[in-house]
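EI: anyone free to look at a 136-residue chain?
SC: sure, send it
EI:
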Amino acid sequence: MLKGIVCADDARLAAEHGMDGIVVSNHGGRQVDGAVGALDQLPAIVAAVGDRLTVLFDSGVRCGADVVKALALGAQAVLIGRPVLYGLALGGQKGAEHVLRCLLAELDLTLALAGYTSHRQLTPGSLVRAEPWQGS
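SC: here you go
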């Protein structure tokens, strides 16, 4: 797996050089102020590699709705980092487990409220992109 992909061209290069998969990630946006949003790049990256690579996602995932967005845009799985570490720091193993249980519950709730019975039903059409507010 190659982590840190935020460009379709880099994803294609990873496929051409024999990678099994990639992690679409801007490292949570903490490395470079103003870095491109990994979620914004995900659809183009998925389109660029098709089924040649496993595409995982991580970057800014904090709740179940974030997981739904990434899966709908083509990620095959979502990696969770910081929230689990926060849970671990606050409550040890039980804290980390609590965070994961909460994320799964939020994922289930988000799917149900959107009318889905499985994450496998999600497509890019499951999402509506909000236009930025322009004011009056």
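EI: The chain has one domain: 2-121.
SC: 👍
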